């Protein structure tokens, strides 16, 4: 399914979502009905939810071509090139997020708190 832009009728939020090509409406996080917007096609919306989180980690002083290209035009193709250039890839569906592994003392604390909440477990 392709990605489309939607605008919520209730709260006014705009967001990207996967939708069937013939879907004229989507559902906003607030539960409101959202109208599908005419797609801009080659670029991302400047206010896409996730874009700030990406631009925050892009090394804006890097001379690397994949960085310059993405900063100049944050299109889907340039985003994929940036991911490849940084040796990153999107998570596969169901793949756990990489994060700091739980240290033994944290795991012990988690188990202790769980046991305190569930005395019969
Ligand atoms: Zn909404």
- Spatial ordering of strands, largest sheet: 2-1-4-3
Percentage of helical residues?
A: 25-40%
Radius of gyration: 20 Å
Mean pLDDT: 79
* Class by alpha and beta content: alpha+beta
Strand content range = 5-15%
Oligomer: single chain
Can you tell me the number of structural domains? 2
Largest sheet: 4 strands, antiparallel
Order of helices and strands: EEEEHHHH
The low-pLDDT segments are none
How many helices? The count is 4
Question: Can you put this structure into words, describing what you see?
Answer:
The protein has two domains: 39 residues, no CATH class; 48 residues, no CATH class. The chain is built from four helices and four strands, in the order ββββαααα. Strands 2-1-4-3 form a four-stranded antiparallel beta sheet, with no helix packed on it. α2 packs antiparallel against α3. It is flat.
Question: What are the key terms here?
Answer:
alpha+beta, 2 domains, 4 helices, four-stranded antiparallel sheet
